[in-house]
Design a protein that fits this description.
This protein is α+β, with helices and mostly antiparallel strands. It has three domains: about 35 residues; about 190 residues, Thrombin, subunit H (Beta Barrel); about 110 residues, Pdz3 Domain. Helix content is about 30%, strand content about 35%. A six-stranded antiparallel barrel has the order 1-2-3-6-5-4. It has a six-stranded antiparallel barrel with strand order 7-8-9-12-11-10. Strand 4 and strand 5 form a beta hairpin. The longest helix is centred in the first third of the chain and has 74 residues.
């Protein structure tokens, strides 16, 4: 017979079993809690990340809004500011850079204006101010007078660069702006020395853009700025400034029956100055592209006389210079003279209607494109209306001969 198990032993085993079950339940509960805690942490992390992204977006939006408000406040401040004070500020910041230029020639003397270009003592002015000068003298606003030498000049753009050796403190270069960004109606200031009256400022607007004025040899200065700011003899070579105090042009000519200001002044654009001055400094000259033709606008009357639709537009080739770029490329000039609208016109030549894929509606369009975008040696593609058909010609640009 087996030995009987005491009752207390049964109770002990039963207690151990219950304890094990309780511990197992607690362990499972703890594991569940840890899993729940981990899941909750992940959820909290995702929620925090989303909130961070939202805050970043809100911060960026707030920064953009602040920037917009800052610009708006600046615009309002500027628009509410006294115009006179703004002009005074620009004048005071730039006037020490504008000089009086006096020259002596074999036939007498003349004077004009100029402005400081760089800290090497180079000054920009008009070619017609210094042309033929036997001596050049520059007077700074503080009264300092210095001899100047001619560095380079371009009669075709009425540009010249002279240079002085003075104390560096006198050299305050003006910043060249972008004349291509000007708008008609935009306010501008002209500073110069009309009739020898030093440091005179006048105020006006940009009256028109893309004008042309006569240059030597029957050529034209293109992209000229028209302004109603008062320009008189002696203003030539002085800066035309925008409302940021940047040079957007150089005052050069007026249209007047009396020779005095009549509301129409012209300025060489700053883009032309920027394009040419480095060459004037380095080489003393600037080479313009050359086609070797004489031409004119194809008007409705001329088009009809040539048997074309009156709406046809382009640059009519009147004459071709023998041996020139156009002659070598095969362009043809006019064949006969007709009297059209009371004027004698040579007709029958080629009509240039496109250059490098750009439409040409006038002779001026052709000249502007060449001056802006091409230099001697460039090969260009011309679309030419010849008779009733269109031909394509390749032409290598030459160098415009110096004025005779």
């Amino acid at each position: 017979m087996g030995e009987a198990i005491p009752e207390w032993e049964d109770r002990r085993k039963a207690g151990v079993s219950r304890l094990s079950i309780v511990l197992l339940v607690l362990l499972i509960a703890n594991l569940g809690f840890l899993v729940f805690l981990a899941m909750d942490v992940n959820l909290q992390t995702l929620r925090l990340n989303r909130e961070i992204e939202i805050l970043k977006f809100q911060l960026n939006s707030a920064q953009s809004e602040i920037a917009s408000l800052r610009d708006e406040v600046k615009i309002r401040v500027l628009s509410n500011a006294s115009e006179a004070l703004q002009l005074t500020q620009i004048y005071n910041e730039t006037r020490m850079s504008v000089v009086l230029i006096r020259v002596r020639t074999p036939t007498g003397s003349a004077q004009g204006s100029g402005f400081v270009y760089d800290e090497e003592g180079r000054i920009i002015t008009n070619n017609h101010v210094v042309e033929g000068a036997s001596s050049i003298e520059v007077t700074f606003p503080n009264g300092v007078v210095a001899k100047a030498k001619l560095v380079g000049r371009d009669p075709y753009a009425d540009l010249a660069v002279i240079q002085v050796k003075v104390d560096p403190s006198l050299l305050r270069p003006l910043k060249l702006g972008n004349s291509s960004e000007l708008l008609v109606g935009e306010p501008v200031l002209a500073i110069g020395n009309p009739y020898g009256l030093a440091n005179t400022v006048t105020f006006g607007i940009v009256s028109a853009l893309g004008r042309q004025i006569e240059a030597p040899g029957g050529y034209a200065i293109v992209d000229v700025i028209q302004t109603d700011a008062a320009i008189n003899p002696g203003n030539s070579g002085g800066p035309l400034l925008n409302m940021r105090g940047e040079v957007v042009g150089m005052n050069t000519a007026i249209v007047s029956a009396t020779g005095s200001f009549s509301g129409i002044g012209f300025a060489i654009p700053s883009d032309t100055i920027k394009r040419e001055v480095p060459s004037l400094i380095e080489n003393g000259t600037y080479q313009h592209p050359y086609l070797g033709i004489r031409g004119m606008d194809l008007t409705p009357s001329i088009a009809e006389a040539m048997g074309l639709d009156s709406g046809t537009r382009g640059a009519l080739v009147v004459d071709v210079v023998e041996g020139g770029p156009a002659h070598k490329a095969g362009l043809k000039g006019g064949a006969m003279d007709l009297v059209i609208d009371g004027a004698r016109v040579r007709v029958g030549g080629d009509i240039i209607i496109g250059v490098e894929g750009r439409e040409v509606r006038s002779f001026y369009d052709l000249v502007v494109h060449l001056e802006r975008y091409h230099r001697p040696g460039d090969t260009i593609r011309l679309n030419v209306l010849r008779g009733k058909g269109v031909v394509e010609l390749m032409l290598t640009l030459g160098v415009r001969p110096p004025p005779s």
